[in-house]
Design a protein that fits this description.
Mean pLDDT: 78
Strand content: 15-25%
Number of strands: 4
Radius of gyration: 21 Å
């Protein structure tokens, strides 16, 4: 994982502009609003980087799989091991 992050920094993702978004949530039982600020980056750039990162390619699963133990019992261990 550290190698992937180091590569991301070399590819310029670490310098990706940090964006700030503020919003308010009104309270139903009060006359006030709570203000929040979140900081985020362009997630699409990071997804493209991960999907195109060759050392990470063998870790990606694009379809559901059925895995079994030696005695034939189904294994449900990951999100892609389902019916």
């Amino acid at each position: 994982m550290y190698k992937i992050l180091a590569t991301a920094e070399n590819d310029g993702l670490a310098q990706d502009e940090l964006r700030e978004t503020s919003f308010k949530i009104p309270f139903e039982y009060k006359e006030t609003q709570q203000s929040y600020t979140i900081y985020h980056r362009d997630i699409v750039r990071y997804i493209r980087f991960l999907l195109g990162h060759r050392p990470f390619a063998d870790k990606l699963v694009y379809t559901l799989v059925r895995q079994y133990t030696a005695d034939g019992a189904r294994i449900y261990s990951e999100i892609y091991t389902t019916n």
